[in-house]
Design goal:
An essential GTPase that binds both GDP and GTP, with rapid nucleotide exchange. Plays a role in 16S rRNA processing and 30S ribosomal subunit biogenesis and possibly also in cell cycle regulation and energy metabolism. The protein has about 300 residues and is an alpha/beta fold. The chain contains nine helices and nine strands. The protein has a six-stranded mixed β-sheet with strand order 2-3-1-4-5-6, with helices on both faces.
């Protein structure tokens, strides 16, 4: 490591579905945070680590999108999002090319006004807009916050991500690494596996069903033997009997699809064959139950 090694904590904030998790996954180089075109897919503060042995280490905190809480799960998500700005070295505010500043953006600006950390405005999805619109977006947002930099990127295609990393390192303090070079996330294999299953459920299901589900990993064991093989049993928790029927699908077609797509991703994660069994259970109004939220890993004391 160099004498001028830099390190620090960086949080990513923004409205739902602006590409926060996609950006982090691209920078880290592997899938950590769940991504979907449906909002509110990230439920916890996910911590990932990017290390360049010659330059420095960035610890990213990916937060749930800022939104109006409708239940206790929503309140937890908002608390997690807000708490990240209080103890970081740098804040990335991620937006899409848009000439109109919405109510949600104004709320975020009000929140960031209370933060001590400097803020970089990151305009994502520039692959879907021309230069003129990006320029108009900068004009629309520049007075909302005292930005130290503005960086346009396409998280999906990686465009501008190297510039963003250089900009982040420029504003981080010098200091030692917090984690060893091999560390990419603070999530366990069980947590990542559960998130993969939830992501595949999000992609396969529609409307309100996905946001009323949680995933419980019941068993996750590696078989002894020469060839690596894992046996995993997981339960998809939903809130209504009607949702259970949709998740299972006609003749079990939907849950089979979710299982097949999940197994493909989990096998890449574990670099091994996977025997995956999925079950569905109804727990009415689990998103408003403190007990159930704790069971599924949403603990306020961890924020």
């Amino acid at each position: 490591m160099s004498d001028n090694f830099k390190s620090g904590f960086v949080t990513i904030v923004g409205r739902p579905n602006v590409g926060k998790s996609t950006l982090m996954n691209h920078i880290i180089g592997q899938k950590i945070a769940i991504t979907s075109n449906k909002p509110q897919t990230t439920r916890n503060r996910i911590q990932t680590v990017y290390t360049d042995s010659e330059v420095g280490q960035i610890v990213f905190l990916d937060t749930p999108g800022m939104h109006q809480a409708k239940n206790k799960l929503g309140e937890y998500m908002m608390t997690a999002a807000k708490s990240t700005i209080n103890d970081v070295d740098l804040i990335l505010w991620l937006i899409e090319p848009d000439t109109k500043v919405g109510a949600g953006d104004k709320k975020i600006a009000e929140l960031l006004a209370t933060a001590e950390a400097p803020v970089i405005l990151v305009i994502n999805k520039i692959d879907m807009a021309d230069g003129a619109k990006v320029g108009e977006t900068i004009q629309a947002f520049k007075d909302l916050c005292d930005f130290i930099e503005v960086v346009p990127v396409s998280a999906l295609h990686g465009e501008g991500c190297d510039d963003l990393l250089s900009t982040i390192f420029k504003h981080l303090p010098e200091g030692p690494a917090f984690y060893d070079e091999e560390t990419v996330t603070n999530q366990t294999l069980r947590e990542i596996t559960a998130e993969i299953i939830r992501e595949k459920s999000l992609h396969a299901l529609n409307d309100e069903v996905p946001h009323g589900i949680a995933i419980a990993i019941d068993t996750m064991k590696e078989r002894p033997g020469k060839k690596p093989m894992w046996d995993i049993e997981a339960t998809i928790i939903c809130e209504k009997n009607s949702h259970k029927g949709i998740i299972i699908g006609k003749g079990g077609a939907m849950i089979k699809k979710i299982g097949t797509n999940s197994r493909y991703e989990i096998e890449k994660l574990l670099d091994a064959k996977v025997n995956l069994k999925l079950f569905v259970k109804v727990k009415k109004d689990w998103r408003d139950s403190d007990y159930e939220l704790k069971n599924f890993g949403y603990k306020k004391e961890d924020i």
